[in-house]
């Protein structure tokens, strides 16, 4: 018996030679490979299933939801849709031809009312009375002018149309018959708004051009 054999052991447990045998666990490369392949297959099946679910839910989207997206995109595409009706520069303002204006001179400058009335006529407004402002009203005009009309939504819209022709104006309301407006010219008045700028204000604000660096999202405004 070798000196390496523990006492009391022999037979098949007998160790021969003068070194202990190297004890190794059996290699399990095959099992590791199988587990790796199974994991890859599971991921592939999961990804394929996810794509199928996306296709199903996309195809089953209610028609109403798609209609809402198209309607929202149409609203965003129209610049006039974002303009509040009746606001200055809105496409909903009355045309100059639908506005009758009485031009009153509250200054000491002779002929100011007539010259202003002629210019308003050239721009399409209907001119009514051209005269000096009442003495009591003339003392109240501190700025470039005051626009006066009867209360009501239609007259308010007409006043805003006329306001596009005058910078620094003040709008007032009083009780009167008819829908004619008064334009009372004050001491700070020099001239009407440049015709090109006034026409642009009546036409409404231009739609902003999209930035070249930022892609436009058709589903948002």
UniProtKB/TrEMBL annotation:
Coiled-coil intervals: none
Region (Disordered): 199-221
LytR/CpsA/Psr regulator C-terminal domain: residues covered: 98-189
Compositionally biased tracts (Low complexity): 199-215
Top-level taxon: Bacteria
Protein name (database record): LytR C-terminal domain-containing protein
Record lineage: Bacteria, Bacillati, Actinomycetota, Actinomycetes, Kitasatosporales
